[in-house]
Amino acid sequence: NAGVTQTPKFQVLKTGQSMTLQCAQDMNHEYMSWYRQDPGMGLRLIHYSVGAGITDQGEVPNGYNVSRSTTEDFPLRLLSAAPSQTSVYFCASRRQGMNTGELFFGEGSRLTVL
Amino acid sequence: GDSVTQMEGPVTLSEEAFLTINCTYTATGYPSLFWYVQYPGEGLQLLLKATKADDKGSNKGFEATYRKETTSFHLEKGSVQVSDSAVYFCALSDWQAGTALIFGKGTTLSVSS
After folding, report:
1. B77 contacts: CB under 8 Å, gap ≥ 6
2. Do A24 and A72 form a contact (C-beta atoms < 8 A)?
3. Minimal Cα distance from B32: which residue of A?
């Protein structure tokens, strides 16, 4: 099973460039989310979606856009990258409405902004 | 708002030593509590969970008990192995209130043989 697939795994950008981190899941999960992981900060929620056409902001949404046109895909867009966005990004998904707590994570995308 | 505080790392142990990683939480409702583990170069995966007070979650020799009176969910293992070396995250959620999973900052465990 593929689970949650993130691409690319590594990316280097220059300040001001734009890019999209891709996330796809094949588990028919309604809920999808993006986290960033920074040393000493743990994981912080950027954006999340509870279904196609529905998105909402998390704890640190500034500088990021998302959309959810299908159940499977939840891309994260950086419109104008800044060095402060250097981080490891994780996409995660789960079934909506199930109190299992089990988020399924991708392997992460390491982004460096110079 | 809701929050999770876990002990600072890194924690360095010898193989077969006893492990405790402390976790306390603040929540307005009745959250579920979780421990996630992140092995080097990988994403996070659920290690164990507890959904109500006095529940004990367990998996792979790890245990944690949901203590409402002390607002704690400490992770323990009686005998660690080198393969347990990873980063451990305590987390909470109140799905009924619509809150997303809130993570602690993570504790790095390094086990040597």
Report:
1. B18, B19, B61, B62, B63, B84
2. yes
3. A101
Separation in Å, CA B97 to CA A34, A65, A99, B15: 20, 25, 11, 41
The token pair at A67 is: 């959309």
**CB within 8 Å of A22: residues ≥ 6 apart:** A5, A6, A7, A8, A73, A75
pLDDT one-digit tens code per residue, A64-100: 999 999 999 999 999 999 999 999 999 999 887 655 6
Q: CB B43 to CB A33 under 8 A?
A: no
Q: A109 to chain B, minimum CA–CA distance in Å?
A: 10
DSSP H/E element including B76? strand B75-77
Minimal CA separation from A76 to chain B, in Å: 17
pLDDT digits (tens, 9 = 90+) for B44-83: 999 999 988 999 999 999 999 999 999 999 999 999 999 9
Structure tokens at B65: 């008990």
Residue type, A59: E
Q: What whole-number distance in Å separates Cα of residue B45 and Cα of residue B36?
A: 5
Chain mean position to CA B21:
7
Inter-chain touch A103–B49, beta carbons under 8 Å: no
B51 → closest Cβ in A99, A105, A107: A99
User: Is A55:A48 a contact under the CB 8 Å cutoff?
Assistant: yes
